[in-house]
Amino acid sequence: MSTSTSLAAAERATPVRTATVPRHYGRYLYLAINIAILIFLLAPIAIVVVFALNPTPFIQFPPVGVSLRWFEKFFASRDFMHALWFSLEVAVLTTLSATLLGASAALALARGNLPGTRLIVATMLSPLMLPAILTGLALFQTYVLLDVGRPTWGLVAGHTLVTLPYVVRTTLAVLHNFDTRLEEAAQNLGASPLRTFFEVTLPLIKPGVLAGAIFAFIVSFDQFPVSLFLVSPGNETLPVTLFNYLKFDLDGTIGAASVVSILLAFVVVIGLDRTVGLRSYVKL
């Protein structure tokens, strides 16, 4: 009796060991998941680059060699070059208009104490929730009813509509943590409201404005659904020209054009970093 009692007491005293996963296994799992996500995101870019450099007129892996013939064909094509420059023109105009309107709207929403601010913000961000093809179709029908045709300014207006939410959102994010006492101090020292804006407010919200401008440029340059409804014959953007090219042919020229678009996005970001210094605002 005493023996069984002691054994039961010993069992109760002995801690029950549960299976635990070592901490370094969790780190390896986290690292593996991140590597898998990076591969998933970068694999299409790698395939496009291989397709652009492959000398054969079809996708072949492993590639049989390296050739720049498709890049030569792309830059020698009058249609592609016109579409590239036209896309750049539309993207620049869209970036300027979206940045000006978006930053102004964000300031008004953050500082104006407007009634129904949340409803206004939701309305301005609604193009992000609607399919872009519906936006393009609605704008096309509106232009038909107004009998204005499909001018370049109409295309820029359509791109501005779909890129405006990016500028508004990034600028509002910076203004959310903005210390208004800095503006009050500048005005107490005799600075006019205009001088306060350009020397105090604008430098501090610059990271959000520039981030929105970068998004606006890239989204406008690669915009296809809206452009498909609003371009006119002879003035087609690069995505629409690529779409029409795919109807009749499929070769490495498509890959070369895609690589040019990817490199252009990198050039825009690096150029802004070199001229404005985006990394100096990372902490903001």
Number of helices: 12
Our Rg estimate from Cα atoms comes to 28 Å
CATH homologous superfamily assignment of the largest domain? MetI-like
Helical percentage? over 70%
Can you put this structure into words, describing what you see?
- With 284 residues, the protein is mostly helical.
- The protein folds into 2 domains: 47 residues, no CATH class; 208 residues, MetI-like (MetI-like fold, Orthogonal Bundle).
- 74% of the residues lie in helices and 0% in strands.
- It has 12 helices and no strands.
- Helix 3 packs across helix 12, helix 4 crosses helix 7 and helix 8 packs across helix 9.
- The radius of gyration is 28 Å and the shape is globular.
- The N and C termini lie far apart (73 Å).
- The C terminus is likely disordered.
Overview in brief:
The chain folds into 2 domains: 21-67, no CATH class; 74-281, Orthogonal Bundle (MetI-like fold), CATH 1.10.3720.10. It contains 12 helices and no strands. The chain has helices at residues 2-13, 23-53, 69-76, 78-111, 117-125, 132-146, 152-176, 181-188, 193-221, 225-230, 238-246, 252-275.
